[in-house]
Write a structure and sequence with these properties.
This protein is an alpha/beta fold. The protein is built from 11 helices and 19 strands.
Protein backbone atom coordinates (compact mmCIF):
# COMPACT_ATOMS: atom_id res chain seq x y z
CA UNK A 1 0.00 0.00 0.00
CA UNK A 2 1.25 3.47 -0.76
CA UNK A 3 1.60 5.14 2.61
CA UNK A 4 1.80 8.78 3.49
CA UNK A 5 5.17 10.12 4.64
CA UNK A 6 3.73 10.17 8.14
CA UNK A 7 2.76 6.51 8.03
CA UNK A 8 6.06 5.49 6.49
CA UNK A 9 7.86 7.31 9.27
CA UNK A 10 5.63 5.78 11.92
CA UNK A 11 6.14 2.34 10.49
CA UNK A 12 9.90 2.48 10.46
CA UNK A 13 10.05 4.25 13.80
CA UNK A 14 7.73 1.63 15.22
CA UNK A 15 9.98 -1.16 13.98
CA UNK A 16 13.25 0.37 15.13
CA UNK A 17 13.12 3.21 17.65
CA UNK A 18 9.89 2.02 19.20
CA UNK A 19 11.24 -1.47 19.25
CA UNK A 20 14.14 -0.18 21.33
CA UNK A 21 11.74 1.81 23.45
CA UNK A 22 9.74 -1.35 24.03
CA UNK A 23 12.76 -3.24 25.31
CA UNK A 24 13.74 -0.35 27.56
CA UNK A 25 10.21 -0.01 28.89
CA UNK A 26 10.01 -3.71 29.57
CA UNK A 27 13.15 -3.52 31.68
CA UNK A 28 12.27 -0.33 33.56
CA UNK A 29 8.52 -0.81 33.87
CA UNK A 30 8.21 -4.57 33.94
CA UNK A 31 6.67 -4.42 37.39
CA UNK A 32 3.77 -2.32 36.11
CA UNK A 33 2.76 -4.61 33.24
CA UNK A 34 -0.03 -6.94 34.26
CA UNK A 35 0.38 -10.68 33.67
CA UNK A 36 -3.16 -11.52 34.72
CA UNK A 37 -5.22 -13.80 32.44
CA UNK A 38 -7.96 -11.17 32.12
CA UNK A 39 -5.64 -8.41 30.91
CA UNK A 40 -3.72 -8.02 27.64
CA UNK A 41 0.00 -8.73 28.08
CA UNK A 42 3.13 -7.35 26.40
CA UNK A 43 1.92 -3.76 26.42
CA UNK A 44 4.02 -0.58 26.43
CA UNK A 45 3.24 3.08 25.83
CA UNK A 46 5.58 5.84 24.71
CA UNK A 47 4.25 9.30 25.65
CA UNK A 48 6.77 11.00 23.35
CA UNK A 49 4.67 10.16 20.28
CA UNK A 50 1.61 8.65 21.97
CA UNK A 51 2.36 5.20 20.56
CA UNK A 52 1.35 1.87 22.05
CA UNK A 53 2.96 -1.48 21.29
CA UNK A 54 1.36 -4.87 21.99
CA UNK A 55 3.34 -8.11 21.61
CA UNK A 56 1.61 -10.53 23.97
CA UNK A 57 -1.79 -12.13 24.40
CA UNK A 58 -4.68 -9.85 23.46
CA UNK A 59 -7.76 -10.14 25.70
CA UNK A 60 -11.10 -8.86 24.40
CA UNK A 61 -13.92 -7.49 26.53
CA UNK A 62 -16.42 -10.29 27.23
CA UNK A 63 -19.35 -8.10 26.22
CA UNK A 64 -17.59 -6.93 23.04
CA UNK A 65 -18.29 -3.28 23.81
CA UNK A 66 -15.00 -1.95 25.14
CA UNK A 67 -12.50 -3.92 23.04
CA UNK A 68 -8.97 -4.79 24.17
CA UNK A 69 -8.71 -5.10 27.95
CA UNK A 70 -5.73 -3.08 29.20
CA UNK A 71 -4.26 -2.52 32.61
CA UNK A 72 -5.52 0.48 34.56
CA UNK A 73 -2.29 2.39 33.85
CA UNK A 74 -3.20 2.69 30.13
CA UNK A 75 -5.71 5.05 28.53
CA UNK A 76 -6.83 4.20 24.99
CA UNK A 77 -7.84 7.80 24.38
CA UNK A 78 -4.15 8.82 24.50
CA UNK A 79 -3.07 6.39 21.75
CA UNK A 80 -2.39 7.91 18.32
CA UNK A 81 -0.17 5.15 16.88
CA UNK A 82 -0.76 1.46 17.58
CA UNK A 83 1.81 -1.26 16.78
CA UNK A 84 0.84 -4.93 17.16
CA UNK A 85 3.76 -7.26 16.51
CA UNK A 86 3.41 -11.03 16.79
CA UNK A 87 0.55 -10.74 19.28
CA UNK A 88 -2.03 -13.49 19.80
CA UNK A 89 -5.57 -12.49 18.87
CA UNK A 90 -8.61 -13.79 20.81
CA UNK A 91 -10.96 -16.32 19.24
CA UNK A 92 -13.69 -13.66 19.14
CA UNK A 93 -12.23 -10.33 18.01
CA UNK A 94 -15.57 -8.54 17.69
CA UNK A 95 -15.11 -4.76 18.19
CA UNK A 96 -11.53 -5.48 19.26
CA UNK A 97 -10.25 -1.91 18.79
CA UNK A 98 -13.21 -0.14 20.37
CA UNK A 99 -12.16 2.84 22.45
CA UNK A 100 -9.06 3.80 20.42
CA UNK A 101 -10.93 6.92 19.36
CA UNK A 102 -7.87 9.04 18.59
CA UNK A 103 -5.71 6.45 16.86
CA UNK A 104 -4.31 7.70 13.52
CA UNK A 105 -2.17 4.75 12.41
CA UNK A 106 -2.33 1.02 13.07
CA UNK A 107 0.43 -1.39 12.10
CA UNK A 108 -0.25 -5.11 12.54
CA UNK A 109 2.55 -7.57 11.75
CA UNK A 110 2.47 -11.39 11.91
CA UNK A 111 -0.34 -11.74 14.46
CA UNK A 112 -1.28 -15.20 15.69
CA UNK A 113 -4.87 -15.61 14.50
CA UNK A 114 -5.09 -19.37 13.96
CA UNK A 115 -7.81 -19.60 16.62
CA UNK A 116 -9.74 -16.49 15.60
CA UNK A 117 -13.17 -17.06 14.05
CA UNK A 118 -14.87 -13.66 14.35
CA UNK A 119 -13.46 -10.28 13.24
CA UNK A 120 -16.77 -8.46 12.92
CA UNK A 121 -16.69 -4.71 13.70
CA UNK A 122 -13.02 -5.09 14.59
CA UNK A 123 -11.96 -1.59 13.43
CA UNK A 124 -15.45 -0.08 13.50
CA UNK A 125 -15.85 3.62 14.19
CA UNK A 126 -12.14 4.53 14.24
CA UNK A 127 -12.97 7.88 12.65
CA UNK A 128 -9.48 9.37 13.00
CA UNK A 129 -7.67 6.35 11.53
CA UNK A 130 -5.71 7.63 8.53
CA UNK A 131 -3.55 4.61 7.71
CA UNK A 132 -3.64 0.91 8.53
CA UNK A 133 -1.07 -1.71 7.55
CA UNK A 134 -1.83 -5.41 7.96
CA UNK A 135 1.00 -7.82 7.18
CA UNK A 136 0.97 -11.63 7.27
CA UNK A 137 -2.42 -12.01 8.91
CA UNK A 138 -3.93 -15.49 8.54
CA UNK A 139 -7.71 -15.25 8.32
CA UNK A 140 -8.40 -18.77 7.07
CA UNK A 141 -10.42 -19.61 10.20
CA UNK A 142 -12.39 -16.37 10.28
CA UNK A 143 -16.05 -16.80 9.33
CA UNK A 144 -17.43 -13.34 10.10
CA UNK A 145 -16.08 -9.97 8.91
CA UNK A 146 -19.31 -7.97 9.07
CA UNK A 147 -18.66 -4.27 9.70
CA UNK A 148 -14.92 -4.92 10.00
CA UNK A 149 -13.82 -1.48 8.70
CA UNK A 150 -17.12 0.39 8.90
CA UNK A 151 -17.13 4.10 9.75
CA UNK A 152 -13.37 4.50 9.24
CA UNK A 153 -14.17 7.82 7.64
CA UNK A 154 -10.60 9.21 7.51
CA UNK A 155 -9.16 6.31 5.50
CA UNK A 156 -8.37 7.09 1.85
CA UNK A 157 -6.77 3.75 0.93
CA UNK A 158 -7.06 0.29 2.44
CA UNK A 159 -4.70 -2.58 1.65
CA UNK A 160 -6.18 -5.94 2.71
CA UNK A 161 -4.04 -8.18 0.54
CA UNK A 162 -3.29 -10.26 3.67
CA UNK A 163 -6.94 -11.17 4.16
CA UNK A 164 -8.54 -14.27 2.63
CA UNK A 165 -12.34 -14.41 2.47
CA UNK A 166 -13.18 -17.30 0.16
CA UNK A 167 -14.22 -19.54 3.07
CA UNK A 168 -16.76 -17.05 4.47
CA UNK A 169 -20.32 -18.12 3.64
CA UNK A 170 -23.89 -17.12 4.39
CA UNK A 171 -26.32 -19.94 5.09
CA UNK A 172 -30.07 -19.89 5.52
CA UNK A 173 -29.67 -19.77 9.29
CA UNK A 174 -26.60 -17.52 9.53
CA UNK A 175 -26.03 -13.81 9.73
CA UNK A 176 -24.84 -11.75 6.78
CA UNK A 177 -21.15 -12.31 7.46
CA UNK A 178 -19.75 -9.54 5.24
CA UNK A 179 -22.52 -6.98 5.72
CA UNK A 180 -21.41 -3.35 6.30
CA UNK A 181 -17.76 -4.42 5.92
CA UNK A 182 -16.64 -1.05 4.47
CA UNK A 183 -19.79 0.96 5.20
CA UNK A 184 -19.54 4.75 5.56
CA UNK A 185 -15.84 4.93 4.77
CA UNK A 186 -16.71 8.23 3.16
CA UNK A 187 -13.19 9.21 2.05
CA UNK A 188 -12.06 5.78 0.93
CA UNK A 189 -10.80 5.90 -2.67
CA UNK A 190 -9.21 2.47 -3.14
CA UNK A 191 -9.38 -1.00 -1.60
CA UNK A 192 -6.46 -3.23 -2.58
CA UNK A 193 -6.84 -7.02 -2.45
CA UNK A 194 -4.74 -10.03 -3.44
CA UNK A 195 -5.02 -11.50 -6.94
CA UNK A 196 -6.70 -14.63 -5.52
CA UNK A 197 -9.46 -12.64 -3.81
CA UNK A 198 -12.71 -14.54 -4.16
CA UNK A 199 -15.94 -14.42 -2.18
CA UNK A 200 -18.43 -17.26 -1.96
CA UNK A 201 -21.55 -16.92 -4.10
CA UNK A 202 -23.74 -17.29 -0.98
CA UNK A 203 -22.49 -14.03 0.54
CA UNK A 204 -25.13 -11.29 0.49
CA UNK A 205 -23.04 -8.33 1.66
CA UNK A 206 -25.83 -5.99 2.73
CA UNK A 207 -24.59 -2.38 2.53
CA UNK A 208 -21.04 -3.66 2.19
CA UNK A 209 -19.83 -0.42 0.53
CA UNK A 210 -22.74 1.82 1.54
CA UNK A 211 -21.76 5.51 1.66
CA UNK A 212 -18.29 5.04 0.09
CA UNK A 213 -18.91 7.88 -2.35
CA UNK A 214 -15.26 8.30 -3.42
CA UNK A 215 -14.52 4.62 -4.01
CA UNK A 216 -13.27 3.64 -7.47
CA UNK A 217 -12.25 0.17 -8.66
CA UNK A 218 -8.82 -0.45 -10.11
CA UNK A 219 -10.11 -0.25 -13.68
CA UNK A 220 -12.25 2.83 -13.19
CA UNK A 221 -15.60 1.49 -11.98
CA UNK A 222 -17.06 4.26 -9.84
CA UNK A 223 -19.19 3.71 -6.74
CA UNK A 224 -22.94 3.95 -7.27
CA UNK A 225 -25.02 4.70 -4.16
CA UNK A 226 -27.50 1.85 -3.58
CA UNK A 227 -30.90 1.71 -2.00
CA UNK A 228 -31.11 0.83 1.69
CA UNK A 229 -30.06 -2.72 2.68
CA UNK A 230 -28.84 -3.35 -0.83
CA UNK A 231 -26.90 -6.59 -1.46
CA UNK A 232 -23.46 -5.36 -2.52
CA UNK A 233 -21.30 -8.48 -2.59
CA UNK A 234 -21.71 -8.36 -6.38
CA UNK A 235 -19.27 -5.40 -6.32
CA UNK A 236 -16.75 -7.11 -4.00
CA UNK A 237 -14.70 -8.15 -7.03
CA UNK A 238 -11.45 -7.06 -8.61
CA UNK A 239 -12.29 -4.42 -11.21
CA UNK A 240 -11.14 -5.44 -14.68
CA UNK A 241 -12.11 -5.21 -18.35
CA UNK A 242 -14.52 -8.13 -18.00
CA UNK A 243 -15.64 -7.87 -14.37
CA UNK A 244 -16.90 -4.64 -12.82
CA UNK A 245 -16.14 -4.24 -9.12
CA UNK A 246 -14.93 -1.79 -6.51
CA UNK A 247 -11.66 -3.55 -5.66
CA UNK A 248 -8.11 -3.15 -6.96
CA UNK A 249 -5.30 -5.64 -7.48
CA UNK A 250 -1.81 -4.28 -8.14
CA UNK A 251 -1.03 -7.11 -10.52
CA UNK A 252 -3.75 -6.03 -12.99
CA UNK A 253 -2.91 -3.04 -15.22
CA UNK A 254 -5.39 -0.20 -14.82
CA UNK A 255 -6.83 1.25 -18.01
CA UNK A 256 -8.41 4.68 -17.71
CA UNK A 257 -10.26 6.67 -20.30
CA UNK A 258 -9.33 10.32 -20.61
CA UNK A 259 -9.59 13.30 -22.91
CA UNK A 260 -6.82 15.43 -24.30
CA UNK A 261 -8.83 18.54 -25.06
CA UNK A 262 -5.70 20.59 -25.64
CA UNK A 263 -5.53 18.67 -28.91
CA UNK A 264 -8.15 16.63 -30.68
CA UNK A 265 -7.26 13.15 -29.51
CA UNK A 266 -9.06 10.55 -27.51
CA UNK A 267 -6.60 9.00 -25.08
CA UNK A 268 -6.54 5.74 -23.14
CA UNK A 269 -4.10 5.92 -20.25
CA UNK A 270 -2.79 2.53 -19.13
CA UNK A 271 -1.22 2.44 -15.67
CA UNK A 272 0.99 -0.30 -14.27
CA UNK A 273 1.35 -0.30 -10.49
CA UNK A 274 3.40 -2.91 -8.65
CA UNK A 275 2.44 -1.61 -5.20
CA UNK A 276 4.88 -2.27 -2.37
CA UNK A 277 7.12 -4.51 -4.47
CA UNK A 278 10.52 -2.77 -4.51
CA UNK A 279 12.18 -5.38 -6.75
CA UNK A 280 13.03 -4.08 -10.23
CA UNK A 281 10.73 -5.38 -12.96
CA UNK A 282 10.56 -4.54 -16.67
CA UNK A 283 7.18 -4.37 -18.38
CA UNK A 284 7.09 -4.74 -22.17
CA UNK A 285 3.94 -3.70 -23.98
CA UNK A 286 2.65 -4.78 -27.38
CA UNK A 287 -0.37 -3.06 -28.92
CA UNK A 288 -1.99 -4.19 -32.14
CA UNK A 289 0.87 -5.30 -34.38
CA UNK A 290 3.42 -3.03 -32.65
CA UNK A 291 5.89 -4.82 -30.39
CA UNK A 292 7.65 -2.82 -27.70
CA UNK A 293 4.96 -0.15 -28.00
CA UNK A 294 6.11 0.84 -24.51
CA UNK A 295 8.80 -0.43 -22.15
CA UNK A 296 8.59 0.55 -18.49
CA UNK A 297 11.01 -0.35 -15.69
CA UNK A 298 9.72 -0.05 -12.13
CA UNK A 299 11.23 -0.65 -8.70
CA UNK A 300 14.83 -1.33 -7.78
CA UNK A 301 14.92 0.24 -4.32
CA UNK A 302 12.73 2.01 -1.77
CA UNK A 303 12.71 5.32 -3.65
CA UNK A 304 12.40 4.02 -7.22
CA UNK A 305 9.04 4.55 -8.99
CA UNK A 306 6.65 1.63 -8.62
CA UNK A 307 4.03 2.87 -11.02
CA UNK A 308 4.16 4.07 -14.60
CA UNK A 309 1.82 4.66 -17.52
CA UNK A 310 1.62 4.95 -21.28
CA UNK A 311 -1.05 6.33 -23.61
CA UNK A 312 -3.00 4.85 -26.52
CA UNK A 313 -4.63 7.20 -29.05
CA UNK A 314 -7.29 6.39 -31.59
CA UNK A 315 -8.16 7.34 -35.15
CA UNK A 316 -11.83 8.41 -35.15
CA UNK A 317 -13.10 5.77 -37.57
CA UNK A 318 -11.25 3.02 -35.65
CA UNK A 319 -12.41 3.73 -32.10
CA UNK A 320 -14.55 0.58 -32.06
CA UNK A 321 -11.81 -1.68 -33.46
CA UNK A 322 -10.50 -4.16 -30.93
CA UNK A 323 -6.71 -4.43 -30.82
CA UNK A 324 -4.75 -6.86 -28.65
CA UNK A 325 -2.93 -5.32 -25.71
CA UNK A 326 -0.27 -7.63 -24.25
CA UNK A 327 1.88 -6.78 -21.22
CA UNK A 328 4.81 -8.94 -20.13
CA UNK A 329 6.47 -8.60 -16.73
CA UNK A 330 10.08 -9.78 -16.98
CA UNK A 331 9.06 -11.65 -20.15
CA UNK A 332 6.18 -13.41 -18.35
CA UNK A 333 2.77 -12.49 -19.76
CA UNK A 334 0.58 -10.82 -17.12
CA UNK A 335 -2.08 -9.20 -19.32
CA UNK A 336 -3.58 -10.17 -22.66
CA UNK A 337 -6.84 -8.69 -23.83
CA UNK A 338 -8.29 -7.10 -26.94
CA UNK A 339 -9.55 -3.61 -26.23
CA UNK A 340 -11.34 -0.84 -28.11
CA UNK A 341 -11.42 2.77 -27.03
CA UNK A 342 -15.18 2.88 -27.64
CA UNK A 343 -15.59 0.31 -24.86
CA UNK A 344 -14.01 2.69 -22.37
CA UNK A 345 -16.05 5.63 -23.65
CA UNK A 346 -19.21 3.61 -23.07
CA UNK A 347 -17.96 2.74 -19.59
CA UNK A 348 -17.46 6.43 -18.80
CA UNK A 349 -21.10 6.99 -19.69
CA UNK A 350 -22.11 4.11 -17.42
CA UNK A 351 -19.89 5.20 -14.54
CA UNK A 352 -20.51 8.93 -14.36
CA UNK A 353 -23.74 10.20 -12.83
CA UNK A 354 -25.87 12.36 -15.11
CA UNK A 355 -27.28 14.24 -12.10
CA UNK A 356 -23.91 15.84 -11.36
CA UNK A 357 -22.88 18.88 -13.43
CA UNK A 358 -19.19 17.90 -13.59
CA UNK A 359 -20.01 14.27 -14.32
CA UNK A 360 -22.47 15.33 -17.03
CA UNK A 361 -19.69 17.17 -18.87
CA UNK A 362 -17.58 14.01 -18.84
CA UNK A 363 -20.53 11.92 -20.07
CA UNK A 364 -21.22 14.46 -22.81
CA UNK A 365 -17.59 14.41 -23.92
CA UNK A 366 -17.61 10.62 -24.07
CA UNK A 367 -20.91 10.56 -25.93
CA UNK A 368 -19.75 13.25 -28.34
CA UNK A 369 -16.61 11.33 -29.29
CA UNK A 370 -18.67 8.16 -29.72
CA UNK A 371 -20.99 10.04 -32.08
CA UNK A 372 -18.05 11.42 -34.01
CA UNK A 373 -16.45 7.97 -34.18
CA UNK A 374 -19.68 6.39 -35.40
CA UNK A 375 -20.08 9.13 -38.03
CA UNK A 376 -16.51 8.58 -39.21
CA UNK A 377 -17.15 4.83 -39.40
CA UNK A 378 -20.17 5.44 -41.61
CA UNK A 379 -18.55 8.01 -43.85
CA UNK A 380 -15.39 6.00 -44.40
CA UNK A 381 -17.40 2.72 -44.61
CA UNK A 382 -15.28 1.24 -41.83
CA UNK A 383 -16.64 -1.52 -39.57
CA UNK A 384 -20.21 -0.20 -39.93
CA UNK A 385 -21.75 -3.39 -38.58
CA UNK A 386 -20.49 -2.39 -35.13
CA UNK A 387 -20.94 1.36 -34.75
CA UNK A 388 -19.16 3.04 -31.86
CA UNK A 389 -22.29 4.52 -30.27
CA UNK A 390 -24.50 1.47 -30.76
CA UNK A 391 -26.89 0.94 -27.89
CA UNK A 392 -26.41 4.35 -26.27
CA UNK A 393 -29.80 5.95 -26.81
CA UNK A 394 -28.96 9.20 -25.03
CA UNK A 395 -26.16 9.97 -27.45
CA UNK A 396 -27.55 9.04 -30.85
CA UNK A 397 -29.16 12.28 -32.08
CA UNK A 398 -27.49 15.57 -32.93
CA UNK A 399 -30.39 18.00 -32.59
CA UNK A 400 -29.03 19.60 -29.42
CA UNK A 401 -26.35 21.51 -31.30
CA UNK A 402 -27.86 21.89 -34.79
CA UNK A 403 -29.74 25.07 -33.85
CA UNK A 404 -26.65 26.62 -32.36
CA UNK A 405 -24.72 25.58 -35.45
CA UNK A 406 -27.20 27.29 -37.77
CA UNK A 407 -27.58 30.39 -35.60
CA UNK A 408 -23.88 31.07 -35.34
CA UNK A 409 -22.83 30.24 -38.88
CA UNK A 410 -25.64 31.48 -41.13
CA UNK A 411 -23.43 32.90 -43.87
CA UNK A 412 -22.12 30.47 -46.45
CA UNK A 413 -18.50 30.08 -47.38
CA UNK A 414 -17.70 32.65 -50.13
CA UNK A 415 -14.91 31.58 -52.51
CA UNK A 416 -15.44 34.74 -54.62
CA UNK A 417 -14.56 36.99 -51.70
CA UNK A 418 -11.36 35.07 -51.09
CA UNK A 419 -10.58 35.13 -54.81
CA UNK A 420 -10.96 38.92 -54.94
CA UNK A 421 -8.87 39.39 -51.81
CA UNK A 422 -6.03 37.32 -53.26
CA UNK A 423 -6.28 39.13 -56.57
CA UNK A 424 -6.16 42.51 -54.84
CA UNK A 425 -3.13 41.35 -52.92
CA UNK A 426 -1.19 40.52 -56.07
CA UNK A 427 -2.16 36.93 -56.87
CA UNK A 428 -3.41 38.00 -60.37
CA UNK A 429 -3.41 34.85 -62.49
CA UNK A 430 -6.59 33.10 -63.59
CA UNK A 431 -7.63 31.24 -60.48
CA UNK A 432 -10.50 30.45 -58.15
CA UNK A 433 -10.91 28.93 -54.72
CA UNK A 434 -12.21 25.64 -55.97
CA UNK A 435 -12.75 23.83 -52.68
CA UNK A 436 -11.64 23.48 -49.09
CA UNK A 437 -11.37 20.35 -47.00
CA UNK A 438 -10.52 19.17 -43.53
CA UNK A 439 -8.56 16.16 -42.41
CA UNK A 440 -11.09 14.30 -40.28
CA UNK A 441 -8.63 11.88 -38.75
CA UNK A 442 -6.95 11.53 -35.38
CA UNK A 443 -3.70 10.37 -36.96
CA UNK A 444 -2.55 13.80 -35.83
CA UNK A 445 -4.36 16.86 -34.55
CA UNK A 446 -6.88 18.26 -37.01
CA UNK A 447 -5.56 19.68 -40.27
CA UNK A 448 -7.48 22.31 -42.27
CA UNK A 449 -6.76 22.47 -46.00
CA UNK A 450 -7.54 25.32 -48.42
CA UNK A 451 -7.11 24.53 -52.11
CA UNK A 452 -6.41 27.24 -54.73
CA UNK A 453 -6.78 26.50 -58.42
CA UNK A 454 -3.86 27.37 -60.73
CA UNK A 455 -3.51 27.11 -64.52
CA UNK A 456 -3.42 23.53 -65.79
CA UNK A 457 -0.40 21.56 -64.77
CA UNK A 458 1.46 24.50 -63.23
CA UNK A 459 1.20 23.76 -59.50
CA UNK A 460 4.95 23.10 -59.27
CA UNK A 461 5.69 26.54 -60.74
CA UNK A 462 3.42 28.26 -58.26
CA UNK A 463 4.81 26.29 -55.35
CA UNK A 464 8.30 27.43 -56.37
CA UNK A 465 7.24 31.09 -56.31
CA UNK A 466 8.39 32.43 -52.92
CA UNK A 467 6.35 35.60 -53.37
CA UNK A 468 3.12 33.60 -53.51
CA UNK A 469 4.09 31.43 -50.54
CA UNK A 470 5.01 34.50 -48.51
CA UNK A 471 1.78 36.23 -49.53
CA UNK A 472 -0.43 33.39 -48.33
CA UNK A 473 1.58 32.71 -45.18
CA UNK A 474 1.60 36.40 -44.26
CA UNK A 475 -2.18 36.35 -44.15
CA UNK A 476 -2.35 33.20 -42.04
CA UNK A 477 -3.53 33.52 -38.44
CA UNK A 478 -2.11 33.77 -35.94
CA UNK A 479 1.19 33.51 -37.84
CA UNK A 480 3.02 31.51 -40.49
CA UNK A 481 4.46 28.96 -38.07
CA UNK A 482 1.47 26.65 -38.43
CA UNK A 483 0.98 26.98 -42.19
CA UNK A 484 2.57 25.18 -45.09
CA UNK A 485 2.00 25.23 -48.86
CA UNK A 486 1.83 21.91 -50.68
CA UNK A 487 0.77 20.40 -54.01
CA UNK A 488 -2.83 19.34 -54.47
CA UNK A 489 -2.11 17.76 -57.83
CA UNK A 490 -1.09 19.49 -61.08
CA UNK A 491 -3.92 22.05 -60.95
CA UNK A 492 -4.07 23.06 -57.28
CA UNK A 493 -1.90 24.33 -54.49
CA UNK A 494 -3.02 23.66 -50.94
CA UNK A 495 -2.47 25.50 -47.67
CA UNK A 496 -2.17 23.13 -44.73
CA UNK A 497 -3.00 24.43 -41.25
CA UNK A 498 -1.92 21.62 -38.96
CA UNK A 499 -2.38 20.75 -35.30
CA UNK A 500 -5.61 22.67 -34.81
CA UNK A 501 -6.94 22.30 -31.29
CA UNK A 502 -10.49 20.92 -31.47
CA UNK A 503 -11.52 23.73 -29.10
CA UNK A 504 -10.36 26.27 -31.68
CA UNK A 505 -12.26 25.15 -34.75
CA UNK A 506 -14.14 28.45 -34.60
CA UNK A 507 -10.91 30.51 -34.70
CA UNK A 508 -9.95 32.20 -37.95
CA UNK A 509 -7.25 30.64 -40.12
CA UNK A 510 -7.50 33.57 -42.54
CA UNK A 511 -9.09 36.82 -41.44
CA UNK A 512 -11.82 39.11 -42.76
CA UNK A 513 -9.39 41.90 -43.62
CA UNK A 514 -7.42 39.65 -45.95
CA UNK A 515 -10.04 37.31 -47.41
CA UNK A 516 -13.28 39.25 -47.05
CA UNK A 517 -14.48 37.05 -44.19
CA UNK A 518 -13.13 35.05 -41.27
CA UNK A 519 -12.24 31.65 -42.69
CA UNK A 520 -12.62 29.05 -39.93
CA UNK A 521 -12.79 25.26 -39.95
CA UNK A 522 -16.31 25.54 -38.51
CA UNK A 523 -17.34 27.66 -41.50
CA UNK A 524 -16.33 24.80 -43.76
CA UNK A 525 -18.22 22.31 -41.55
CA UNK A 526 -21.30 24.49 -41.82
CA UNK A 527 -20.96 24.64 -45.61
CA UNK A 528 -20.76 20.85 -45.78
CA UNK A 529 -23.70 20.44 -43.43
CA UNK A 530 -25.89 22.82 -45.45
CA UNK A 531 -24.83 21.95 -48.98
CA UNK A 532 -23.87 18.27 -49.02
CA UNK A 533 -26.33 15.74 -50.40
CA UNK A 534 -24.42 12.93 -48.67
CA UNK A 535 -26.15 12.22 -45.32
CA UNK A 536 -23.03 10.53 -43.94
CA UNK A 537 -20.94 13.61 -44.75
CA UNK A 538 -23.53 15.90 -43.13
CA UNK A 539 -23.53 13.63 -40.09
CA UNK A 540 -19.74 13.77 -39.88
CA UNK A 541 -19.74 17.57 -40.03
CA UNK A 542 -22.30 18.05 -37.26
CA UNK A 543 -20.65 15.35 -35.11
CA UNK A 544 -17.29 17.10 -35.27
CA UNK A 545 -18.96 20.41 -34.49
CA UNK A 546 -20.63 18.84 -31.45
CA UNK A 547 -17.25 17.48 -30.31
CA UNK A 548 -15.86 21.02 -30.67
CA UNK A 549 -18.65 22.50 -28.51
CA UNK A 550 -18.26 19.83 -25.81
CA UNK A 551 -14.48 20.29 -25.73
CA UNK A 552 -14.88 24.03 -25.18
CA UNK A 553 -17.23 23.34 -22.27
CA UNK A 554 -15.06 20.63 -20.73
CA UNK A 555 -12.20 21.51 -18.38
CA UNK A 556 -9.39 19.02 -17.81
Amino acid sequence: MRKSKLMSAVKYVSMSVLGAALSLTMIIASKTISKADGVTTGVSFDPNDNSMTITGNIVNDDEHKNGIVLGSEYNKENVEHLLINGATFPSDATSLFAGFNNVKTIYISSPITSGTTNMSWMFNNLKKLEDITIESMNTSTVTNMAGMFSNCSALTELDITSLSVNHITDTANSDDNMADMFKECTNLERIVVASNWQIDSSVHGSNMFYGDFKLVGGNGTKYVHPSSDSPMAVYAKIDSDKTHGYLTNYGVPKIKAGFDTEGSKFVLSVSIDQGEDIVEHTYKVSYGDIENYAVITLGGNHVAPRSGSFELTAVAKEINDEKPLVIKKDDVEVFNNSISVAYYLRRLIDIYDSSSESDTKIRNMAGSILRYGAAAQKYFKHNTDKLANKGIVDFTNFTDNINQFSDNYDSSFDPAAMNKALSDAGYKDDKAVAYSAMNLSFDEDLTFMMAFKVPNGESATYLADPALANLIKSKHKPNADNCSLESGGPNYIVTMTKNINVKNLDSAVFGEDEFGQDVTPVLYLYRVYKASSNPDMKNLAISLYDFHVRAKEYQN
